[in-house]
Amino acid sequence: MLLLFVILGKNHIYQVARIPVVKNQLINIQKKITPLKNFILMRGFNYQLALIVTSGSCKFCDFKNDNLSDQNLINSDLGYTNFRGANLSNSNLEGANLRGSDLRGANLTNSNFKGAKLNDSDLRNSNLNDANFAYANLSGANLNGVDLTNTNLNGANLINADIRNTFLLGLNPNELMENLEIKIKNQNQNQNNINWYSYIEEQKLNISRYDFNGDKKYIATKEGLLFELNNNKFKAVIDLNLKSKFPFTSQGEGGLIGVASNNKKVYIAYTSRINDGPFSIIVDEYFDNFTNVRNIIKLELSGSSSHFSGSLFFDLNDNLYLSVGDNTSAMSAQNLNSYSGKILKLDISNSKQKPKIIAYGVRNAWGVNVDSKNRMFISQCGGESVESIYMLENWLSESPANLGWPVYEGSAKKITDSTVLKNIIKPIYEYSFRPGCITSSAYLSHLSILVVGDFFGTIHLLKEQENGQWILLQKYKQDKFKIWSFGLDKKSKHILIAPDNVELILTEKNITISTPD
Q1: Distances in Å between the alpha carbon of 416 and those of 364, 411, 431?
Q2: How confident is the model at residue 193, as a pLDDT?
Q3: pLDDT tens digits, one per residue of 248-287
Q4: Distance (Å, rounded) from C-alpha 3 to C-alpha 504?
Q5: Count of beta carbons in the 10 Å neighbourhood of residue 341
Q6: Mind listing the pLDDT tens digit for each residue in 339-371?
Q7: What is the rounded radius of gyration, in angstroms, for the C-alpha atoms of the chain?
Q8: What is the DSSP code (8-state) at residue 304?
Q9: What DSSP character marks residue 221?
Q10: Delimiting residues of CATH 2.120.10.30 domain(s) in the chain
Q11: Which residue from 109, 108, 130, 129 is spatially nearest to 121, judged by alpha carbons?
């Protein structure tokens, strides 16, 4: 170091040390050197604590798994200190500097961090129950998965903080509706019901999709029947088992897997197969009250009887889209010469143009929808570990978005020796608890909430913050009802859940899941 001072000069050394990469390397070195020096000199817990009392500083110190409860550490300089697994409950750290500190797994219950500097700190798996972080600097902090329900974050700086998968009900209660609660309630059916729910239940049909975009509502079943609900009249309008443009099959994950209506025309997506041959996804257009049908596209597949996807949906400009799974041929999702593992914009004019690839790197996007702001939400059912939701804006650009599968599963890279992929987008929300498979989402504009459903029954409520990050408002895990898809009625604001046709009602005060009246 002395030689460097002589050769380069003091000022130049300082400038080099301020370069982010160099600075981080120096910090990492210091994190190892200081604890090692204290260990060699036998400067243990008591020495380090006394140092804080006498000097107000103990940077790069090591309090791993130590008991620091009920300590008065106001305005102490504890930057880059190791508090991993430490007990800091009931301690006062108001105004303290804990920048870059490791607080993973620490007990911070009822502790006071008001105005403290915790930027770039790591708080994963820590217990922040009743902790006070009012006006604290948490910019760049890692809070991934932390429960902040009872944490005071009033005025806290969370810019660039990792707040994925967090419970943030304590942040601005009025904005985040901290009184939301989820309940399961089985209501008795109303005798005035037109009995369509009873009919589907009696016939033991599995609802696969809903289309509630117009005055006429459509209910699709995996078994190949499409029902129309209009002015309290309920009737079957399509039975693919009796008549279809191509041989219908409901084998595996197949069946009648998509429905979307617009301008007196109804579009359906279904799987087709001749004997033991390859599967196909068919999109047909019905018009003139279902008396005429026109094929829009036939996509021939080469994989198994799963990962078909099949979500049909319109954007606000009346463009029709179809989600296509990878059909268990994972690498096809990255092949732009294949339609497997893609989100496609379909041509429904008479010119029969080829589909346009909007997004690729898709594993099995069973649930895709467009909200009132013309944003596309893609529910990506993961493989071994990660479930994720993606949001696309301005997706009609020349370059399609890449969700990364199978090289990436969510934000986790799964194939390390793969070449660098282009246009990779990150999910707005992801989680890793098992079992798990995100299947659906619905954006409620009146609450500014994205409702996310998992096949195994878990319901997530997400909200976008001003900085563009999405946070978890609430998560409710139940296993009574599986979740195949959501059907959002934009007039009533209610959501029906397939396949069991239960109803999810959201208000600012409560959330109820019930059988529909």
Answers
A1: 22, 13, 21
A2: 44
A3: 999 999 999 999 999 789 999 999 999 989 999 999 999 9
A4: 70
A5: 30
A6: 999 999 999 998 778 999 999 999 999 999 999
A7: 28
A8: -
A9: E
A10: 232-481
A11: 108
Determine the 3-state secondary structure of 300 from DSSP. strand
Angle at 269 (CA atoms; ends 242, 435), nearest 5 degrees: 115
Strands (E) located in 125-181? none
Residue 117 has pLDDT above 80, yes or no: yes
What letter would DSSP give residue 430?
E
Amino acid 51: pLDDT:
86
Assign residue 350 a region (left: φ > 0; alpha: ψ between -120 and 50; beta: otherwise).
Answer: alpha
Give the CATH fold of the 19-171 domain.
Pectate Lyase C-like (2.160.20)
Amino acid at 248: F
Instruction: State CA 304 to chain mean position distance.
Output: 27
Residue 55 φ then ψ, to 5°: -115, -15
Which tokens in the block code for residue 360?
Answer: 């690729």
Average pLDDT, the chain: 84
Tens of pLDDT along 436-490?
A: 999 999 998 888 889 999 999 999 888 887 778 787 777 788 888 999 999 998 8
Q: Which of 144, 78, 146, 88 is nearest to 117 (CA)?
A: 78
The CATH architecture one would assign to domain 232-481 is 6 Propeller (2.120)
Name the strands in the sheet holding 485-489, side by side, starting at the edge strand that comes first in the sequence.
182-184, 511-514, 502-506, 494-498, 485-489
- Which residue pairs, CB below 8 angstroms and at least 24 apart, start in 171-179? 171/471, 176/463, 176/471, 176/473, 177/447, 177/473, 177/508, 179/508, 179/509
Per-residue pLDDT of 192-201, as tens digits, reads 344 677 888 8
Query: CA 77 to CA 109: how far, in whole Å?
Result: 21
For residue 435, whether the previous peptide bond is cis, meaning omega lies within 30 degrees of 0, is yes
Q: What's the CA gap between 383 and 370, in Å, rounded?
A: 24
pTM: 0.69
The pLDDT tens digits for 397-445 are 778 999 999 999 998 888 877 666 767 899 998 888 889 999 999 998 8
CB proximity list for 11: less than 8 A, separation 6 or greater: none
Question: Residues of CATH 2.160.20 domain(s) within the chain?
Answer: 19-171
Backbone angles phi, psi at 40, to 5 degrees: -65, -40
